[in-house]
Design brief:
Number of domains: 3
Strand content: 5-15%
CATH superfamily of the largest domain: Vaccinia Virus protein VP39
Shape: globular
CATH architecture of the largest domain: 3-Layer(aba) Sandwich
Largest sheet: 9 strands, mixed
Structural class: alpha/beta
Helix content: 40-55%
CATH topology of the largest domain: Rossmann fold
Number of helices: 19
Amino acid sequence: MFEQTFKNIDDILHKDAGCSSELDYTEQTSWMLFLKYLDDFEQERAMEAEMMGEDYPYIIDEAHRWSAWAAPKDVNGSFDHNTALTGDDLMDYVDGELFPYLKGFKQRATGPDTIEYKIGEIFGEIKNKIQSGYSLRDALEKVDELRFRSQQEKHELSHLYETKIKNMGNAGRNGGEYYTPRPLIRAMIDVIQPQIGETIYDGAAGSAGFLCEAYDYLRKGGREQKELSTSALKTLQEKTFYAKEKKSLAYVIAIMNMILHGIEAPNVVHTNTLGENLQDIQPSNQHDIILANPPFGGKERKEVQQNFPIKTGETAFLFLQHFIKMLKPGGRAAIVIKNTFLSNTDNAAVALRRELLENCNLHTILDCPAKTFLGAGVKTVVLFFTKGEPTQNIWYYQLDPGRSLGKTNPLNDADMAEFVELQKTFADSEKSWTVSVTEIAQGTESDLSVKNPNTKEEAALREPADIIAEIIALDKESEDILAGIEGLL
């Protein structure tokens, strides 16, 4: 229904001088979508209030509502081209009045968990990059065709928005930074099995894919698919999902993605998660479940490293320490990390592995094949652990979809099914095996690398001297044969 509208918006932005990539298209579509969503949300609340004989206190002043400036309508409900701003007038209004007004909400809001604060945060971070007032007018008219009224409409919009995020992740840079494959996320959630009433946290939220998928899982009643009560739905909306994100664009996209999935006032904080000292994290800040794919390879400054007991410049290792601290005792985590973490011999990696083995039950390691993350050049594993009990055994699963993954052949849910099924009982198979922690602890470096005992060992490499001797013997044999042939001529 809305797919063509999304394509048309991209086409308009593609022709505008201010938008040069998939990142820009998604960013600019996001702020327009957000304001259209807000208008539909407010209209709906106003109608509900009217039916109850009450007044609805609008968040946005009348002059700055979507229906006043972006899509004015005449008495028949048709688009009113006579009053709609366009060209330079539209640009002057959006850049000079609308954005400053929306940015001001941050100062006027009663607290950071309000929709008003989120509006202020978004428009304090995002800039209108569209340069032509005529392009902007065309884009606004297309966005106005989208509707957020029914659950089905929101579902379709969230699906299309996910596709935009996926394309953005594939548009160069590090694909994994914006997009973790949804089949992998769903498998991680299936193993962790969140319940209503538990809090779920991602301190490196990106586009909030983990939280959106966890919301969908719980909204459908978890593994049992049971109907949710009104109070359970309220808990799901307000007291379940918590996120932090450092980058402005990802922050805005995370909020929009969560809203489209049905979380009306997302608890996303725009901050550098690693700037928080581990000693300052109180039990009241801790969560039941952590699902995350933290950025790796980044180098954090020395003063940030001071916040952590295990000092390292590797961003992913700092995040892992943060996540362990943010878990409640007995809390469960599933975290994507590059596979070199399992075997690196540097002090930080060794100390972190020991921390996991001694203070957490690292019960499962999922080994992902190359190109699971499009655009990311490293291989990854997923660590599943419970905080507060030492590791006894680690169950490994080597994911092998039986084909080479790529943009046209990505990971799918069927690829993950065997892992999810076998993990329930930690069953051994051609692709899975169990290692006792006593076997690991014998090595001083606690090497956890993936070594499938079911893989047939490759023939040992021969010594160079043996190979040279064989070449000489073969040359001698060839010489004798040629001499024999020559004798026959």
